[in-house]
Amino acid sequence: MSTINIATRDGRCPCHVYRPAGAGPWPAVLVFMDGLGIRPALRKMLADKFRVHTTLSNVTSDAGAFLDALAAQPDVKPGRIGVTGYCMGGSMALAAAGTYPERIAAAIEDPSFPDDMKQRLEEALTNAGVVHTLETYPARHGWVFRDTPVYDAAASERHWRALVELLDSALK
Fold first, then answer.
1. Which of 35, 102, 165, 171 has the most CB atoms around it within 10 Å of its CB?
2. For 52-64, how does the pLDDT look when each residue is reduced to its tens digit (9 = 90+)?
3. What is the rounded CA–CA span in Å between residue 160 and residue 28?
4. By residue range, what is the domain housing residue 67?
5. Nearest to 4 by CA among 30, 36, 34, 24
């Protein structure tokens, strides 16, 4: 893991970069974290101080800067990337994919949304000709990460398998 600072419209954003072992280039995946963010680095901060600036307009602007920064990395495979998001990061991932469809090949979002929203999203993606899969997990919101009180091991394992398969097929 290394840390890079990406220049965005609003200033510099510290980001964590994880690379597989071996020689690249590798496909890139942009992960939009949940509201708690990278826990060790942000536990002492008050999330509310920064959350007011987390609008979809700001997120999509920053996502463009992140995409540019990823494309400039010598060990990142050229072409479209994957994005994923958890909790509030799910809407960020979808906003980024909708804003930069020519640069993003795969997105999967947090499944905690009502059935009518799921249906509207299904219809919108189908009408736009987007190849997609929507999955619902029988678990409580926040269930993916081991450090949450609602962690669900079986659902988490199913999620990681589905996400890796999606990214593997979309980014080859």
1. 171
2. 567 888 889 999 9
3. 17
4. 2-170
5. 30
Nearest to 34 by CA among 126, 130, 101, 112: 112
pTM for the model = 0.67
Mean pLDDT along residues 111-127: 83
| Domain count across the chain | 1
